[in-house]
Design brief:
Layout lengths: L3 H13 L5 H9 L20 E4 L2 E3 L2 H12 L7 E5 L5 H7 L4 E6 L2 H13 L5 E5 L13 E6 L1 E2 L5 H5 L1 E11 L4 E8 L6 E9 L2 E2 L7
Parallel strand pairs: 3-4, 3-6, 4-5, 6-8, 7-11
Antiparallel strand pairs: 1-2, 8-9, 9-10
This protein binds S-adenosyl-L-homocysteine (SAH).
Organism: Teredinibacter turnerae (strain ATCC 39867 / T7901)
GO cellular component, one term: cytoplasm
Family: Belongs to the methyltransferase superfamily. L-isoaspartyl/D-aspartyl protein methyltransferase family.
Length: 214
């Protein structure tokens, strides 16, 4: 179930679907997805599908995790600070933590955040800051900016705060819409207040909700 062959098969599927960033594929191959799921579902961990993680939420499909990560990383260079909105079970967080210097991850459902923190500790990934907060408002610290922002929940429209938290040349990858969502890429042009937006592909995410729950 968790054998190298099973994981390699998943990686091959991602390659077949067009994921080409070698570092991203290597990280997916080496990250145990089964530890992010309840035992009853862990036998399905290496299928390329989203699965329930409780509280009405889902672990993202490996294809979408890989795709969003490779878009975020872009042509190259390492990103130093990345904001993740919607920690969920922490799988995307774990993938990011192996590819960028530091991850700042917000989740609005407290028990999910607690579990994710524990899993990342088990994987000895220590370069992540977790906050229980509404990610529609960005990272709660005033003046925080990020080279990359990745959202795993879909707003109807991109919240203004996320634009303001992009560093010069910063990159935002986010699903936008309600019934029909489009994965959207926003790049801040240098240190200006100009942003280039590109619509990439149809996707299905849970909605970005406001406020937090205990
Ligand atoms: N990458 C995660 C995706 C989880 S689903 C994983 O693979 O597990 C998206 C997550 O976004 C859910 O956990 C949901 O609670 C969270 N979410 C929704 N709206 C949010 C908001 N405004 N702020 C922070 N997290 C939010």
């Amino acid at each position: 179930m968790t054998s190298k062959r099973t994981r390699d098969r998943l990686v091959q599927r991602l390659v077949d679907q067009g994921v080409s960033n070698r570092s991203v594929l290597d990280v997916v191959a080496n990250t145990p997805r089964h530890i992010f799921l309840e035992e009853a579902l862990s036998h399905r961990a290496y299928e390329d599908t989203s699965l329930p993680i409780g509280h009405g939420q889902t672990i993202s499909q490996p294809y979408i995790v890989a795709r969003m990560t490779e878009i975020l990383l872009g042509a190259g260079g390492t990103l130093s600070r990345v904001l993740e909105i919607g920690t969920g079970c922490g799988y995307q967080t774990a993938v990011l933590a192996q590819l960028v210097e530091r991850v700042y991850s917000v989740e609005r459902i407290k028990p999910l955040q607690i579990q994710a923190r524990e899993r990342l500790r088990r994987l000895k990934l220590h370069n992540v800051d977790f906050r229980h907060a509404d990610g529609g408002l960005g990272w709660p610290d005033e003046g925080a900016v990020f080279d990359g922002i990745l959202s795993a929940a879909a707003p109807r429209e991109i919240p203004a705060r996320l634009y303001r938290q992009l560093a010069p040349n910063g990159v935002l990858v986010i699903p936008v819409g309600d019934d029909q969502q489009i994965l959207t890429l926003v790049i801040r042009v240098g240190d200006t207040n100009e942003f280039k937006t590109q619509k990439l592909e149809p996707v299905r995410f849970v909605p970005l909700l406001s406020g937090v729950t205990r």
